[in-house]
């Protein structure tokens, strides 16, 4: 009897130690998310809320509303996005398997098609309007394509899986979504981002050049045709080459943006002191918010924002390189490429280095769909970073 009790005590102690160890490992895992990524994203969200308030306050007051109305909405979206980011950062990214991501991809395609049933905004069908909420399906499509392609391309070194067919399927999937977004939603920029992201993921997944060259050339040709065959896109391209040739027409946005950049100087006019946000720069709180940043905070403020974006992209690359497996590497790479391309294109447009196009600046521009989806994607990156660090600590 005494021996049996002693044995039960031993088992109980072992079980207790096991529970403690599991709890300790769980506690450690909660702290394994990439700190620099969290810090950069938090700083960008706060920076964005500040600039949304500044860029939108004048318009809100003129229209008889509160100067805080836009930033309050953006703050609510930020809160929702952060909660979703924290939840997603605790979901194992391996759950995004091929079947689930196929359903995500299919759902994104259907949503992108459904926009034709809703009213157009600025002569383009890009939004789905529901009671109390509206959203852009193209924002969902970007990351749905990344997750689906990562599952298609993760077995590049497995000869039994017909690697050539995987590349074709990847480009067909990206081409389908890009084509719908370009033709139905008149959004060439998002279509190009999806196409370039797909090409990048195929190249870094390890497939030989000849297997990627033909689909890539076809994709570039389709994007070029999408610009050349649509008159207003050609006008945007020509006005980008010389915006001052038509400063009150097609070159108006870029001309005013350049004035804002030039008037900001080194330290800027001061927060909320922008003059050109007073209906001179269209979409001042959205696509051209970087111009308001440069005018109000000057070169110093613009460089601080650029530094935060660089840190974000750098940590995304680090997470991809330290990923536990090829799936994590491809997902992290795809998300990072999307964020990098959007940031570069938006800033390039504002400074006159790229034709004017409707691309928001991640975490900074006003827009609930974009902010929530970008924070969700950040949550996936944080989960990949946790798995990568756990793997390294065990080896």
Automatic annotation (TrEMBL):
Pfam families the record matches: FTSW_RODA_SPOVE
Catalytic activity: [GlcNAc-(1->4)-Mur2Ac(oyl-L-Ala-gamma-D-Glu-L-Lys-D-Ala-D-Ala)](n)-di-trans,octa-cis-undecaprenyl diphosphate + beta-D-GlcNAc-(1->4)-Mur2Ac(oyl-L-Ala-gamma-D-Glu-L-Lys-D-Ala-D-Ala)-di-trans,octa-cis-undecaprenyl diphosphate = [GlcNAc-(1->4)-Mur2Ac(oyl-L-Ala-gamma-D-Glu-L-Lys-D-Ala-D-Ala)](n+1)-di-trans,octa-cis-undecaprenyl diphosphate + di-trans,octa-cis-undecaprenyl diphosphate + H(+)
Membrane topology value: Multi-pass membrane protein
Group of enzyme by EC: transferase
UniProt EC number: 2.4.99.28
Alphabetical list of InterPro entries matching this protein: Cell_cycle_FtsW-rel_CS, FtsW, FtsW/RodA
Annotated keywords: Cell cycle, Cell division, Cell membrane, Cell shape, Cell wall biogenesis/degradation, Glycosyltransferase, Membrane, Peptidoglycan synthesis, Transferase, Transmembrane, Transmembrane helix
Domain of life, source organism: Bacteria
Pathways involved: Cell wall biogenesis; peptidoglycan biosynthesis
One BP annotation, GO: cell division
This protein's record includes keyword tRNA processing: no
Family named by the database record: Belongs to the SEDS family. FtsW subfamily.
PANTHER family (UniProt xref): CELL CYCLE PROTEIN (PTHR30474), PEPTIDOGLYCAN GLYCOSYLTRANSFERASE FTSW-RELATED (PTHR30474:SF2)
Function: Peptidoglycan polymerase that is essential for cell division.
Protein name: Probable peptidoglycan glycosyltransferase FtsW
Organism for this UniProt entry: Youngiibacter multivorans
